[in-house]
Amino acid sequence: MTSQSRTGGHSTSGRSGAIDVSKYLDVRVYVRLLGGRQVSGILRGWDPLVNLVLDEAVEQLRDPEDPYKTTDKERKLGLVVIRGTSLVSVYPVEGAEEIVNPFETASS
User: Fold this and answer.
1) Burial of residue 58 (number of CB atoms within 10 Å: 0-12, 13-18, 19+)
2) Residue 74 is assigned to a structural domain of this protein
3) How many domains does the chain have?
4) Domain of 46, in residue numbers
5) Is residue 82 in a domain?
6) Locate the Sm domain: which residues (predicted)?
7) For residue 101, how many other CB atoms are within 10 A of its CB?
8) pLDDT given at position 16
9) What pLDDT shows up at residue 11?
10) Residue 63: CATH number of its domain
11) Is residue 13 in some structural domain?
12) pLDDT of residue 106
């Protein structure tokens, strides 16, 4: 599959979207969405509006009592299209690590 067919037939050399996802093509990425949802999958394509196509997508489920925390539970989604207007961030799974929030205080 050529680069143009993966990007909906549009050239990637012209005006680019708000974020450059070309470096993540065929790489497993985490995608954070408005509302706090998080999905991981292999980036297979995108369009000029940065709508993403993820393959083998998995949603990390959130704690029902604290929607800002994810749990170890996952939901397999398969092939999905994520609208660019819903994106908060896109980053690779490899090389990403969770760190402790230094501003979070322990609840008593």
Assistant:
1) middle
2) yes
3) 1
4) 21-92
5) yes
6) 16-96
7) 7
8) 56
9) 47
10) 2.30.30.100
11) no
12) 67
